[in-house]
Amino acid sequence: MPHTRILAAIEKRRGIDRRQTNAVRLVDGTGDGLPGLFIDDFAGRWLAQTLSETKPSFENDLGFYSLYWKALVKNAAAAPQHLAGELVTKPFHILESGLLFEIDFQSGGSSGIFLDQRINRQKLRSVAHGKRALNTFSYTCAFGVAAAAAGAQTTNIDLSRRYLDWGKRNYQLNRIKDEDHEFLAGDVFGWLKRFRRKGRKFDIIVLDPPTFSRDRTSNVFRVQEDYGRLVEMALECLNHQSLLLCCTNFRGLSSEEFLRILKTAVPRPCQFSRGNMPPDFTGERYLKSVWLQL
Ligand SMILES: C[S@@+](CC[C@H](N)C(=O)[O-])C[C@H]1O[C@@H](n2cnc3c(N)ncnc32)[C@H](O)[C@@H]1O
User: Fold this and answer.
1) pLDDT tens figures, 142-175
2) What percent of the chain has pLDDT over 70?
3) If 0-12 CB within 10 Å is exposed, 13-18 middle and 19+ buried, where does residue 110 land?
4) Nearest residue by C-alpha to atom 10 in ligand 1
5) Top mutation candidate among 139, 163, 189 for ligand 1, by most atoms within 8 Å of CB
6) Closest Cα to residue 294, out of 227, 208, 205, 233?
7) pLDDT at 29 > cutoff 70
8) Given a cut of 80, is residue 13 above it in pLDDT?
9) Counting atoms of ligand 1 from 1, which one is nearest the CA of 249?
10) pTM exceeds 0.85, yes or no
């Protein structure tokens, strides 16, 4: 791998305060003149991902504690392969904006946190104090932790109990009592229907679904076809003067198309503002996020 370009990419990120955030994207493909190469630094344990299936080779003096690699082409659920440095055999912790999160390279698929959502988590934290916040498609509850750290009453929903348990550990790591918050297993659409029936309302809802999903009763969700319906259902569970964060990383949808879907789904007047990707994400702007102030 071109050593000097990797060094230049690392240099570009020197401004990030690592005492508060030690998990960052170090190399972001074309944004760093390294198409097809992405490297995330999780507190010194680096995870390189490539579009090519060919095993990459790196110099040893880049400053990592350990280096792992994963090809993005096939079998996305496979655990990354060890390339150099210390073995990472157990889960470990990273810091993001002063909050701790558990990372696991052996978990398959993702490692526990989506670094591209850092700015949205910071914004959520800045507005969540005293609010009731619903975090749908919560994965390991990183948005929930950010809101709870600000003093919100949080509810997390995910199909996977394993991810919700991981989320509870993330709460505990930050000395937030998980018993004071909700971790609901099951389909988001099913839970939203139940909340509507019971007249349950929230002040903030985070919608950050996968591009495609199928629940246990084979209900299918596709971003292009179903995002509008998801927003309509979320609106029914929101108080007046509330906030809705809508995200998608689906590359097949432009920002304009995404905004159009949102505007069609929201009949009442509201303010739309676009969220930003963190500055260490220098490449493709694939993550679309819009904050709706209702
Ligand atoms: C892309 S991740 C979401 C990332 C998360 N919002 C975050 O910021 O870390 C997708 C998550 O949605 C969950 N999921 C997929 N379909 C679901 C559904 N119909 N209802 C509830 N959770 C679902 C998956 O288990 C997975 O944890």
Assistant:
1) 999 999 999 999 999 999 999 999 999 999 999 9
2) 99
3) middle
4) 210
5) 139
6) 205
7) yes
8) yes
9) 1
10) yes
196 pLDDT tier (thresholds 50, 70, 90): very high
Residues flanking ligand 1, CB < 6 Å: 114, 117, 137, 139, 142-143, 157-160, 163, 187-188, 208, 210, 213, 215, 221
- Within 10 A of 159 (CB to CB), how many other CB atoms are there? 17
Q: How far is CA 44 from CA 47, 62, 97, 252, 257, in A?
A: 9, 10, 17, 33, 38
Task: Tell me what pLDDT residue 77 has.
Answer: 76
Atom of ligand 1 at shortest range from CA of 117: 8
- CA-proximal residue: ligand 1, atom 20 (nearest): 187
Q: Please give the C-alpha separations between residue 151 and each of 148, 236, 243, in angstroms, as whole numbers.
A: 5, 24, 16
DSSP 19: T
Structure tokens given for 265: 């789904």
pLDDT over 70 (residue 75): no
- For atom 22 of ligand 1, which residue has the closest CA? 158
Rounded distance from Cα 213 to ligand 1 centre (Å) = 8
Q: Which pLDDT band holds residue 109 (cuts at 50, 70, 90)?
A: confident
Q: How far apart are CA 98 and CA 139, in angstroms?
A: 20
Rounded CA-CA distance 53/73 in Å is 7
